[in-house]
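[step 3/7] fold_predict: job queued, chain A
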Amino acid sequence: MFGHQLLDWLDNGSEIFYPFVKDELEYSLISKSTPIVWLAALAAIAAGLAFKRIRLCAAAGVAAILLFIGFQFASKAMVTAALAEKYPFLRDAETVYPIGEWPWERATWSYVLKSEFFTASGDSNATGSKINPFHFYFTPPGEGLHYRVEEWTESDEAIVIRCFDEDNGQIVFFESTDGLDWRPLPS
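[step 4/7] structure written:
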């Protein structure tokens, strides 16, 4: 029962502290389609039945699953650090979840980052060294989501972002000294 709750928490969430906490908690390290979890469990059961060493094989299966979960934990930490470097804005919400079935795939993690002014999404490899952005938008207060961020430049005085205005088809620049108060720069 504990193992099932743990795997649900690491996958898509579980109300692990119900009825005290009614929120669904999740950490998103594995996916139900991740074959290594199922292969390790099935191999341990088969070997245990074949060799009549159920406990030893079950321990080996659990160890294999725990090693994989440890790898996923380290991989998620590396990807999260790479995202903080690539997207240097304060986040209201950050979601990094597994999409690949094997660690060596081109894309193993997907991400969605949101703040009051920015939203970004894309995918990444297991180490965070190859981040493939799908979109990165800047939304000034009172305006819609139509400024696609093209370049982010930081200096000692200010942060300048160059955006493509998808409504007008023009390049627009915005500046901020604190990352919270953004104002358009004159053309």
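[step 5/7] annotate
The CA atoms of residues 74 and 127 lie 9 Å apart.
The radius of gyration is 22 Å.
exit 0
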